[in-house]
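Appendix B, Record 12. Input sequence as logged:
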Amino acid sequence: MVKPTAHTPEALVIAPVTNATRNAAFEFHRSTLGEFMLPVPPTTFQQMVEARQMVVVSRRGQIAGLCYVKPDGKELDAVPRWEFGGLHLVPGLRGRGLGTLLSAVAITAVTRADPKPVMGYVHRDNPAGMGLLVHGLGFVVTDQKVRLGPDDAPGHLRRDEAGFATAHVLRLPDAARAHLSDGLEHIGLDVDSPSVPVTLRSQ
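Logged structural output:
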């Protein structure tokens, strides 16, 4: 993982969502549901905050990006796994390496202590699909899939002609997990308490 650089760098801070920043993070989450986030009710949001399963990137003191990984609570089967629930950056920060970094922080923070598989649905407006997780972070696709019916999470997920949304279950090999951890340590970020300034290359 390479720390973005620039001749005129933009100062950003990656940090976990805490009770002090929860309200601002939730408002950011609600405002981006039309983009790539999956809806999360306030009680679940608070649980993720307390479990430190959500990280944000701030620019000039304002939240400019959010990513979370939470336990899969749909109880569609008895297989435990994490759910990569969403990643969103404001338009000016996209395509500059920050999404991969933010996802790596969120995923590494939860899977280091509890290395369950990770599943992810594809948002209907997301042209990249699962490419960030598979190609950017080193996950491999397993033969497991989880399907949501037409009445589940309406209006947000990419669906087939019958109205079903399919989540692919991914596995992070030990070598890929170690690579992510080493990359985060290289930029001085402790996934147990992620809070670090980063610089971002100019567009």
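The CA atoms of residues 35 and 125 lie 6 Å apart.
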